[in-house]
Amino acid sequence: MKNKCLTVVGARPQFIKAAPVSRLMKKFGIKEIIVHTGQHYDYNMSRVFFEELGIKEPDYNLCIGSLPHGAQTGRMMERIEGVLLKEKPGIVLVYGDTNSTLAGALSAAKLHIPVAHIEAGLRSFNKKMPEEINRVLTDYASDILFCPTETAVKNLQKEGIANSMNKGKLISNSFELPHPFTSPCVVNAGDVMYDSVLYNLDIASKTSKILRAYNLSPRNYYLATIHRAENTDNSENLKNIFCSFQKIAKKYPLIVPLHPRTKKLLSDMKGLDKTLKIIPPVSYLDMLMLTNSARIILTDSGGLQKEAFFLNVPCITLRNETEWVETLRSGMNILAENKEYKILKAVENQEKLKVKKRSKNYFGDGNAAEKILKIIKEFVKQELK
Ligand code: UD1
Fold it and tell me: Would you list the domain boundaries of the chain?
């Protein structure tokens, strides 16, 4: 069925990105089939997002769970291929840069099913990150590349994905599909995560009880998250980060919703004192509330860097580089790697930052999902002819 769109999700950030698009599928007359790979499976890493964001139940849960990269991606591909052969969708939608993204894109491309990649064109230029490999390969396997920013479009132009050499059509800022359609096609649709923040901020302020639950008051606490392999899998780096957290927490409470990956690795670390409020992963609305009211955010998450930027909260990124370079421009986000002295200096710096209203929004106008679906609908129509 051509106007059937098969969405592959599997990890926490993908549920958040898929929610605004899924919500509008019906309005555009597209039938959505959701495949959950099962990469994330704990209630508070997966199910809570479906419940809270009103995403429909997955039609398939592949229950792949945690495995080494090759095995995880391989098993996902094997199972996704089976679903694709059965469902015969007109297009496959994948999000972001996880192993679930790559598995979805490759399985579809090999069956000659068109692939649309949402959050295309992002680059850290660090091939040691599993996410970087996933992004690059997914972009090369995709037919429609929905970029969240102009920087992402430029990255694809530099790589030759969006130029005339390979007939890639750049239709940045226009939401009409070229006739006849030639693959690949690159669109700057804006960021679906910005859609999500705008849609949910008011709901979060009205419903979330997280600040009261942890006795926090707005602008009087720091918020941190850590889960990237480069920080968690190296015990020296993880120690540096948590030692600096302990020092920072002497000034203001530091709340750390901890990813299960980090929790496992941290359990070997002795001497973590009680000054840190280490809590289980929280839901999207609670996280939005924590983010919006934080004094400073310390994180290695791509999504949280952006959310801090959308909400005008100073951020410190505990990595050597970021794919979200726009967030660095105004000084709202700074890179502090994973060295203790750099992290402490960055906190000093961000404490002094004068937060100004931004004149330029690099991430679209909050209607990315609508633009994406307009193109997908046109694409499906052209395919039907
Ligand atoms: C994945 C993505 C990353 C994304 C992140 C968001 C890849 C390569 N990485 O990393 O891009 O930013 O999700 O969270 O796809 N675990 C649990 N319970 C769960 C899920 C995971 O205990 O519900 C544990 C697993 O046992 C494993 C670890 O967390 O030890 C890592 O899980 P994994 O699937 O490798 O990816 P993430 O680190 O979450």
Answer: 4-191+364-384, 196-351
**pTM strictly above 0.90:** yes
pLDDT band with cut points at 50, 70 and 90 for residue 254: very high
Q: Which of 187, 56, 69 is nearest to 119 (CA)?
A: 187
| Cα 302 to middle of ligand 1, angstroms | 14
More confident residue, 381 or 254: 254
3-state secondary structure of 32: strand
For residue 321, give both structure tokens: 């580089």
The gap from C-alpha 206 to its chain's centroid, in whole angstroms, comes to 24
User: What's the whole-number average pLDDT of the chain?
Assistant: 93
Half-sphere exposure (CA, 13 Å, Cβ side) for 277?
A: 18
Mutate to test the pocket of ligand 1, among 44, 49, 66 (most ligand atoms within 8 A of CB): 66
Q: Which atom of ligand 1 is nearest the CA belonging to 96?
A: 11
Question: 4-191+364-384: what fold?
Answer: Rossmann fold (3.40.50)
Name the token pair of 307. 């959310």
Specify the ligand 1 atom closest to the Cα of 303.
Answer: 12
Does residue 227 have an active-site annotation?
A: yes
User: Any residues with Cβ below 6 Å from ligand 1, and which?
Assistant: 11-13, 39-42, 45, 66, 97-99, 130-131, 227, 259-261
Task: Report, as an integer, the average pLDDT of 21-43.
Answer: 97
Q: Which atom of ligand 1 is nearest to the CA of 39?
A: 34
For residues 304 and 222, is the Cβ–Cβ distance under 8 A?
no
- Which H helix or E strand runs over 15? helix 12-25
Q: What is the mean pLDDT of residues 52-79?
A: 97
Measure the CA–CA gap between 268 and 265, rounded to whole angstroms: 6
> Taking the CA atoms of the chain, what radius of gyration do you get in angstroms?
20
158 neighbors 142 (Cβ within 8 angstroms) = no
Residue 221, pLDDT above cutoff 90: yes
- CA–centroid distance, 262 to ligand 1, in Å, is 10
| pLDDT one-digit tens code per residue, 99-140 | 999 999 999 999 999 999 999 999 999 999 999 999 999 999
Q: Mind listing the pLDDT tens digit for each residue in 136-172?
A: 999 999 999 999 999 999 999 999 887 644 444 555 4
The CATH topology of domain 196-351 is: Rossmann fold (3.40.50)
Tokens of 249: 């927490």
